[in-house]
Amino acid sequence: MYAQVVVDVPSKQTNRPFDYVVPEELRTWIGVGSRVGVPFGPRTLQGFVVALSERTDMASGKLKKIEQVLDLVPPLNPELVQLARWMSRTYICHEITALQAMIPGALKAKYEKRIELADDAELKARKRADAQDGGQALLFAASPEEEAISAFVRQKGQVTTEAMLARFPEAGPLLKRMLEQGTFVEVQTVRDRMNAKTALFVAPAASPEELTAHSMKLPANAKRQKELLLWFAENLEPLPLAELTDKLDVGAGTVKALADKGLLSVTERELFRDPYAGREFRRTTPLALTPEQRQALEPVADTLERREHGVFLLHGVTGSGKTEVYLQAIQQCLDQGREAIVLVPEISLTPQMVERFKGRFGSAVAVMHSRLSQGERYDEWRKIVLKRVSVVIGARSAVFAPFDRIGLIIIDEEHESSYKQEESPKYHARDVAVERAAYHGAAVVLGSATPSLESYAKASGRLGSGAAGRYRLLTMAERVEGRPLPAVNVVDLREELKAGNRSMFSRGLYEALGQRLERQEQSVLLLNRRGYSTFVMCRSCGFVVQCPHCDISLTYHQVSRTMRCHYCGFSQPEPATCPSCESEHIRYFGTGTQRVEEELAKLFPGIRVIRMDVDTTSEKGAHERLLNRFRDRQADVLLGTQMVAKGLDFPDVTLVGVIAADTVLHLPDFRAAEKTFQLLTQVAGRAGRHRLPGEVFIQTYTPDHYSIVTASAHDFGAFLEQELDIRRQRGYPPYYELVLVTLSHEQVPLLVRAGEAFASRLKQCWEHERRGRGPGYPADSLGHLNDARGDGAYFEVYGPVASPIPRIKDRYRFQCMIKYRGNVDVAGMLAETAAAFDDTVRNDKLTISMDVNPQVLM
Ligand code: ADP
Ligand code: ZN
Ligand code: ZN
């Protein structure tokens, strides 16, 4: 039997499977998706088995053998192996990088050198040769120390040098000599970073009657043995030894005595570290659905029933009860004997969220998020591999849960940018979910109050009639039980300044906060620090300096005191006065949460504030503790960054204030308006979710901006129309697709040359392709943006320009933006182009990274 193995070296030369022989004794354990240790050059490497076969194209005599199989149950399955190949093609990354992304950190390869006894025959042959050679045989008359060390190694099989020296602290020089003499050999092995935790369990090994009968026969002084037998006559469940000796006050010796008689059994079993151990989850039963919920669930249920593949976009306003729809769909999926994956953004994976799922499905749920310890993550993941659970709820990477009977994948808050991984493999969990579901004949439900434009366009058929890739739209427009959406007040901060109010709180918000304190209701204040100080805005008129070529705000670069465009490279000096109204109140924008907290304390003495930002939530569990305190009414105000905007469901929150809505709006990103709309809608959605009605204040310098106007009117439809128009005109997603290529190098001149060469080569590639397609493809593709001639395919390379962050870790960065549409094999062209730079990459340490459908353009 032969195995094809992808090894743990992310390079172009090794980005293919290598053939190995599967030794007879490993056949039982090996499968597609197994992790193995294989000889590769002079080393032993970790690898993944991607195929098994009875034949090989290689001369089989030359093939090396697989040395180790690392797991009894393969951690991946054939579907995931196939998915890795798809990822490597789609996201232009190495297959091993995709495979590694699918397993928890604890299983990433760790290499270790160990010592073992040399093969006996080999050793004897050597001794003989040496002896003939000149009477060196004396050396081999082993000393007692040598005997002791050899015996130790023989007993252990393999030991690390550390373990050896721990046992024989003085043996360093001797060990070295024995290695040189060939008594020992050094082997490299692959090891896990983490081991399953085990414990000894005691169980009865005879029937209750036998146990009782035997206890009668025991002599009177064997009181403890008697007790133990009688206890197990009544308790048939295995119990950890430690617990047992504690409980019954017996020694391990007593247990052993009975085990030796065959009355009890002692076995080693795996323990699972349970991050939620000792927590009670109140059992919940399905709610009676509202008519809207029923309407949304029905088509999903149908698709599940027929075991078909289908993608649904559930657009439900905040508080419309999306979670209950998810829960009931999952129930159906489980009833079919299939498995479900639920993805939620890391930040909203709060105890509240976990409670909802554990409360309904109990111990069938595994939870995966980055706040678990590595051991806990590993154990939750093993529950999936060992089929102990059938639901996993987790952040982005849980999309790789190694289930093999997936019926349903849910992505809550599908618009969240955290579903995109920003380092290689730069995948989007939404696309991966759809790919997996297609394989399994499973349903995907994407839920959001503010769907991404990409998803909405697919669901509404705006991208043309092509049925492939179509999502089905499900709408829930009302909050449950007819609760109203909160009233939103947009406050013009320019007017506040004119009226002499220089505080960061408008008069309206100030008054509303005071009222909440009086009524003992709670408030949420949002201060988005993202984009802090990066754009320049006039405080008198709201003017923001923009690029004359790109309609995108310029970014302030503090070092050079210039303003630059991240898209085209345009740059100008920082203005001293406002180009629009000549006011001198033009400055970098932004206030920190700490300053807001101070001002609150000044304005409302005695106010209790919980501040939630990167500073206060860095500790493990801090995020949850803060939220629990707020829920338990230990504070009047929850103040924070985006973290406070999402997923929270607190009954007494009746006021939401947004300190400055503009901070996101002017980010140099074509998604700035979309992100603003999403954030405002989400945070507003925290108010008045229960009995008490809610109120929202949005403070802004640009009250007329459509994203703010539409968010305050809870009008997703109106926002969508305007935004889609703009995207179409400017040539952005969802009408066009983007790939961001970033090149980096220590020296600017080489980087500039490489960047230029890369762009022109890529253009040639397209030129070639375009000619091959015949006439109807205009060479001047710019004029073609709004115009679908031919099959509407379009391809353009922008740049290279310096990246928005032009140097990281002493490496300079240049980027090209690729914009395309239609039937263009961009991944293929990029791979071909990049291949031409292999030498520069290898010899001159140029790096080229590609981001397909980038979410962050900086
Ligand atoms: P969303 O995720 O859509 O913002 P949630 O799922 O958090 O909304 O639901 C909002 C509130 O409505 C929750 O407190 C939830 O328990 C409650 N709820 C949901 N469905 C129903 C229902 N059918 N009947 C009564 N209450 C419901
Ligand atoms: Zn520009
Ligand atoms: Zn101005």
Automatic annotation (TrEMBL):
Domain Helicase ATP-binding intervals: 303-469
Annotated binding of Zn(2+) 1, by residue: C538, C541, C578, C581
Residues that coordinate or bind Zn(2+) 2: C547, C550, C565, C568
CDD domains, A to Z: DEXHc_priA, SF2_C_priA
Membrane keyword on record: no
PROSITE patterns to which the protein is assigned, alphabetical: HELICASE_ATP_BIND_1, HELICASE_CTER
Enzyme class at the top of the EC tree: isomerase
Alphabetical list of InterPro entries matching this protein: DEAD/DEAH_box_helicase_dom, Helicase_ATP-bd, Helicase_C-like, P-loop_NTPase, PriA, PriA_3primeBD, PriA_3primeBD_sf, PriA_C
MF term (GO), any: hydrolase activity
Domain Helicase C-terminal: 551-727
Keywords: ATP-binding, DNA replication, DNA-binding, Helicase, Hydrolase, Isomerase, Metal-binding, Nucleotide-binding, Primosome, Zinc
Free-text cofactor note: Binds 2 zinc ions per subunit.
EC number: 5.6.2.4
Domain of life assignment: Bacteria
Cofactor(s) in the UniProt record: Zn(2+)
Reaction(s) this enzyme catalyzes, per UniProt: Couples ATP hydrolysis with the unwinding of duplex DNA by translocating in the 3'-5' direction; ATP + H2O = ADP + phosphate + H(+)
Subunit structure: Component of the replication restart primosome.
NCBIfam families: priA, PRK05580.1-3
Record family assignment: Belongs to the helicase family. PriA subfamily.
Primary role: Initiates the restart of stalled replication forks, which reloads the replicative helicase on sites other than the origin of replication. Recognizes and binds to abandoned replication forks and remodels them to uncover a helicase loading site. Promotes assembly of the primosome at these replication forks.
UniProt name for this protein: Replication restart protein PriA
Gene this protein is translated from: priA
